[in-house]
Write a structure and sequence with these properties.
Number of strands: 0
Structural class: mainly alpha
Largest sheet: none
Radius of gyration: 18 Å
Number of domains: 1
Number of helices: 5
Helix content: over 70%
Oligomer: single chain
Length: about 170
């Protein structure tokens, strides 16, 4: 999979924020399960490969790059989630059956620590993400790299395929 540095940093931020929100607010909030998130990522990846015209041989190489880096990204995520979890547990204890107003208050209470931890996680992810992106881009043809950059620019500006996304 082709990863841009900004997308990987967004992954770190979104994952921590979503996990914080889900744990603070409980299972009623309709957060996707890890299996559902994997399925969504796989669908996004397949669509992105199709848009780029990735060949089966390129896909094999890109998937190998992803598989080599993902354990490192997961360790970073786990490291930073462990910093947030005690605070989330305290908030859940404070609001065992939260009203909508209490859910909002819980989010306000968690926001400062989540933001701090997100910044730390992003700083740790960036060098790894840069390295992974460089390897991934080397697998693509010049035409695919050009197309990749155009797709990413369009998504950042809200063009076709724009809006929030975590992995492409």
């Amino acid at each position: 999979m082709v990863f841009s540095t900004k997308r990987l940093m967004a992954v770190a931020a979104i994952t921590l924020a979503a996990a914080g929100a889900a744990q603070a607010q409980g299972p009623r909030m309709g957060m996707p399960t890890p299996q559902q998130m994997k399925q969504m990522r796989d669908q996004q990846k397949a669509q992105f490969y199709k848009e780029l015209g990735v060949t089966p041989a390129q896909r094999t190489k890109l998937d190998a790059i992803e598989n080599r880096y993902m354990p490192q990204f997961m360790r970073i995520q786990k490291k930073y989630m462990s910093q947030i979890q005690p605070r989330m547990a305290a908030v859940r204890k404070k609001y065992p059956n939260p009203t909508p107003q209490q859910q909002q208050q819980a989010m306000r209470e968690l926001q400062p620590i989540v933001m701090k931890v997100q910044q730390q996680a992003i700083a740790e992810v960036k060098p790894l993400a840069d390295k992974m992106e460089k390897e991934s881009m080397a697998v693509l043809t010049p035409a695919q790299r050009t197309k990749y950059k155009k797709i990413q620019a369009a998504r950042r500006s809200g063009g076709p395929g724009g809006g929030p996304g975590v992995r492409r």
